[in-house]
Amino acid sequence: MENETHTVTCSAPVNIAVIKYWGKRDEELVLPVNSSLSVTLNQDQLRTVTTVSVSRKFQKDRIWVNNREESMENPRLKRLLAEVRRLTKEQGSMSGNGTRPPSHDCHMHICSENNFPTAAGLASSAAGYACLAYTLCQLYHLQVDVSLLARQGSGSACRSVYGGFVKWEMGEREDGSDSIAVQVAPESHWLELEVLILVVSSEKKAVSSTRGMQTTVKTSPLMKYRCETVVPQRMETMERAIVERDFPSFARLTMQDSNQFHAVCLDSYPPILYLNDTSKRVMQLVTAYNKLHQEERVAYTFDAGPNAVLYCLRETMSELISLVTHYFPPTPGNERNYIRGISSEDCRTDSDFTKKLKLTFDPTPGLLQYIIRTSVGDGPRLLTQPLLGLDGLPLA
Ligand code: DP6
User: Fold this and answer.
1) Mutation choice for ligand 1 from 21, 80, 166, CB with most ligand atoms inside 8 A
2) DSSP structure string for 349-364
């Protein structure tokens, strides 16, 4: 009994915001200056798996991320674990579903892996902290709002604790107890909505979100207008567009909010630039495509980096893939594996169609590393296959 090891393994998805979170009013508790809204992506293409083991045999807390042991000296991680232990101590005797949760004073081993390259800059901290928070809640039988814990690891992580369409209500209270994620609609609500992620080739590492948003909040005059006037209204309109499955409205708002997020970044001092020339070409392509069809059929959005995430309806996907691969072909030799994820239909570019787009740039190979086709997905899952062995060390 004394030497018993408790182990739980879970997975959690990535989410991509359509109304962006940018800026904190409390750095410690990770409380935002505006509400935000996101789409949870399918875990088949992008997910984090985390195993947590707890045992009296362990000498100290340890963490492995993507096959490498990392330091536990990360303030957000330490804070999250301290909060979980405090809640476990408080709730310990109350959690009564038959089995006893492990004690709050045992050491933890944590092992976490992504099924996508972390270096690609694809919201890995959101899936990572959502997965850790969810796994800890399962392990310790915690009766708390999981999003509240995930938020303290990384703000955007709180939206990855649900599938489908999720909003993060900024809340008002100083202790952050009302700053939580809420599901707007489940993944089954809008099955036609699909996602294409363009992983842009870039060498430079962007300014981290945490640091970038501090500079914006401190220095951007535009930011005040965004938080007080623009976002509250956009949250309502976006929620309605999703509930009504109104793609043109959803697309327009998504692009406008991405544009404004990058505008407040540029309005910061010193300025923050996340978009590069490839990102701008993607914006041009989508704009020209929508103009040709005289309605929004594709939406782009960019986070704190140059990668583009495109949303469209399934009926548009084949044409979109043709266009993207026409203007952004792979480097010779990189054709295999260029498009990953949900298997793509045969896509052919109609050359008359591309001429009608009237773009100011020519097709250029190698601007994208690869493309991921995915869809809207579900929230965290409990798994049976652990990443840690009985000795508490990584299996792989
Ligand atoms: C641009 O959640 O990474 O992706 O709370 O400081 O960890 P911290 O920041 P993070 O910020 C993500 C910002 C964003 C927009 C969004 O996801 O809403």
Assistant:
1) 21
2) --HHHHHHT--SS---
